[in-house]
Amino acid sequence: MKAFRRVMMALFALVAPAAAFAQEAAAAAAPAVDGASTFQAVGAAIGAGLAIGAAAAGCGLGQGKAVAAALEGIARNPGSSDKIFTPMIIGLALIESLAIYGLLIAFMLVGKIA
């Protein structure tokens, strides 16, 4: 768990400056084509990639743990499969919505490049 926390903190340290550069690019009415705007575009592109990558990785881990716990519960008590299955599906849908939020953030960052 500590290793995962360190990785997430490192990803945040990389994404936060990229998001700040993307916001500055959006604030400029007509950005000139120079080294600064190119740097901001690259930062936004890297931020978009990291956003969807982190969202997919986190959701994949969460969904794996949720399904493993549900299947273990069903294996221990097969009679409770109806009571476990429906909340598991709802939980998986909520976890997947987090990945969709990451995708939307990535699209927003890529939209700031163009």
Please give the structural blueprint:
Blueprint: H1 2-27, H2 35-76, H3 81-113
Helix pairs in contact: 1-2, 2-3
Give an overview in words.
This protein is mostly helical and 114 residues long. It has a single domain, classed as F1FO ATP Synthase (Up-down Bundle), CATH 1.20.20. It has 3 helices and no strands. Helix 1 runs antiparallel to helix 2 and helix 2 packs antiparallel against helix 3. The longest helix has 42 residues. It is elongated and about 65 Å long. It starts with a helix and ends with a helix. 15% of the residues are buried.
Q: What portion of the residues fall into strands of 2 or more residues? A: under 5%
Mean pLDDT across the residues is: 79
CATH level-1 class: Mainly Alpha
Distance between the termini: 38 Å
> Uncertain regions: pLDDT < 50 for 5+ in a row?
none
Short précis:
By secondary structure, the protein is mostly helical.
Q: What keyword list fits this structure?
A:
114 residues; mainly alpha; F1FO ATP Synthase; elongated
